User: Fold this.
Amino acid sequence: MSFFTRQSAEQFDAPTAAVDDVSGDYTIDPTHTRIGFSTRHAMVTTVRGQFTDFAGTATIDAANPGNSKVQLTIQTASIDTGVADRDGHLRSADFFDADNNKEITFSSTDVARDGDDWVITGDLSIKGETKPVTITFEPTGSARDPFGNLRVGFEGGTAINRKDWGLTWNAALETGGVLVSEKVKLEFDVSAIRNAQDA
Assistant:
């Protein structure tokens, strides 16, 4: 067991399983979901942020994973790193050009199972560029919440090179290296609610 896994096991209650079969149509709950990212700054520290305005749906078919699908739409201007000046720069034409590229989208093209994990491949569109990405998600449980909703949880992540989507701005450091890493880690902590007709 890795340090991270051990720490997680010690910090959180054990996951629950309200249903054996999580198949159905779901809507992502944005108030309990995080779409985050992290990257290196000046080659010495990690800057983290997230998008705060997004919507998504998922169809889960546990028996035939290939029939599953995921759609996600993120409002580009909702990027939030906790520093207003940095967020303004990220929204500018140097990076996301949020005024002219209002949405970031992901649409799955293939879903497969690897043991308990779900491996989702899809088209990620940023700033007019569409490239395939693959994200592995670990299920974190299912539960019936106090309002009668059936919820499922997943955690996943992947790494991309931002230059592949035209996010090329950078500045050289006198000591060598660059100000902003080209590699960006994407992080997903997802809570989704099964749609009423499937609940």
Q: What stands out?
A: The chain has a mean pLDDT of 84. Residues 3-11 form the longest helix (9 residues).
